[in-house]
Amino acid sequence: MLYIMKRTQLYLDDDLWAALHAKAILGGTSISELVRIAARDRYLGNLDERRAAMMGIVGLWKERDDIEDTEAYIRSLRDDDRLERLGIE
């Protein structure tokens, strides 16, 4: 996945920096990448979990009878007298 990156600066205490530094060396990556991964996991959640959540709402309202037919609703929004007012019929 391609991300557009924004540069930022973080202040880390010595213990956190040391832990990230050691993990980065062992993993052959950078502290920046570790922070990006942690932030994505914490604030965006797992991609599979997000996908499952989105699929869970698909068709959620399909059995409701208190909601107007979508196509009819859209057509009612488009049904106006604009063309008539402009003399185009």
Portion of residues within helices: 55-70%
Whole-number average pLDDT?
85
Task: Determine Rg (CA atoms, Å).
Answer: 26 Å
Principal-axes geometry comes out as: elongated
What does this structure look like?
This protein has 89 residues and is mainly α. The chain has one domain. 57% of the residues lie in helices and 0% in strands. It has five helices and no strands. Helix 1 (14-27) packs across helix 2. The mean pLDDT is 85.
Which helices and strands appear, and what pairs or packs with what?
Blueprint: H1 14-27, H2 31-44, H3 47-56, H4 70-78, H5 82-85
Helix pairs in contact: 1-2
Key features of this structure:
89 residues; mainly alpha; 5 helices; 0% strand
Offer a quick outline of the entry.
This protein has 89 residues and is mainly alpha-helical.
